[in-house]
Amino acid sequence: MQRGEKRAEVIDAISEEEFLKNYNPADYDRPSVTVDILVFTLSERGELSLLLIERGNHPFKGHWALPGGFVDMEEGIDEAAKRELLEETGLKDIYMEQLATFGDVGRDPRMRVISVAYLGIAPKDSLTGKCRGGDDAKEACLFQIKQRPDGSFVFINEDWVIMFAENELAFDHAKIIHEGINRIRGKLNYTDIAFEILENKESFTMADLRVAYEAISGMPHPASNFTRNITTRYIKPGKMVETKGRIVAGNGTRVALYEYRRDGVPDPERKDYDDVGAGIKNGNMYGVGAGKRKKKAKAVESSENDACDGGMRGEE
């Protein structure tokens, strides 16, 4: 028997139970894990806003930060995110998804800490009167996000007359916020995330939805182009349905109210439906009428080919 074969026999003879009984976790360094939560909403003027807490303890005591905290040993990461959000802000039952993991060495001056960040979106009405400081958060309030020409952010709360730059945030939270904003802007291309920020998904105007798109993307969307794209992307597939309700707009005209339907139910009576993809590129929506233009081009090409074929046959 070779030495390697004998060693393999010994290893195989040790059961998993015996292995775990003799295993010593202290043989390895164990970094701590935290969760940080971004909760985006719209201000009264339709500007993208973010929920921040003022830290009540060191490190970064008195600095504004994202709500969050340490993951307990007996809970999952998703559970920790929901718990920390409730403890520090009083919020629960909002849209949340995992964003990214941040683990730069030195991101926390206390010790080696890895943070799992979550992206949340909620209508402002669901936050009004509910945001409050708790646990180790001294205060909790919403800040409007203003982007500078150099790409950095400034945070403003006009009620409290507070303004500060991103480099004044605690930990590496400016980096997390940049990642979060890039994520929601990108998700405008392929998800229905804009509807999550509306005050009422069962009754809203086209203008309400346009405000949401402009706030998230940070770009203007001309009304006529926006309406055509939303018609292609949502109304024709039945994901955005006109209700019987009407509302008087600022210019005095009566405008339609819509309801968002997540699964979508296309109207079988419509004959003008074409499957056209729509999205946003460089701040502008695209995909309007692409299917119809393609069909028209094919029809013209076919007509020209028929004409050419007919001429050749005539010459023969």
Description:
Helices cover 32% and strands 26% of the residues. The protein is of the alpha+beta class. The strands form three sheets. Strands 1, 2, 3, 4, 5, 6, 7, 8 and 9 form a nine-stranded mixed sheet that branches. The chain has a two-stranded antiparallel ribbon with strand order 10-11.
Give a quick summary of the entry.
The protein has helices at residues 3-13, 16-22, 77-89, 124-127, 173-187, 206-217, 223-235, 290-315, and strands at residues 32-42, 48-55, 64-65, 68-70, 95-102, 113-121, 137-147, 153-157, 162-165, 240-248, 254-260, 279-281, 284-286.
How are the elements arranged and paired?
Layout: H1 3-13, H2 16-22, E1 32-42, E2 48-55, E3 64-65, E4 68-70, H3 77-89, E5 95-102, E6 113-121, H4 124-127, E7 137-147, E8 153-157, E9 162-165, H5 173-187, H6 206-217, H7 223-235, E10 240-248, E11 254-260, E12 279-281, E13 284-286, H8 290-315
Parallel strand pairs: 1-6
Antiparallel strand pairs: 1-2, 1-4, 2-3, 2-7, 5-6, 7-8, 8-9, 10-11, 12-13
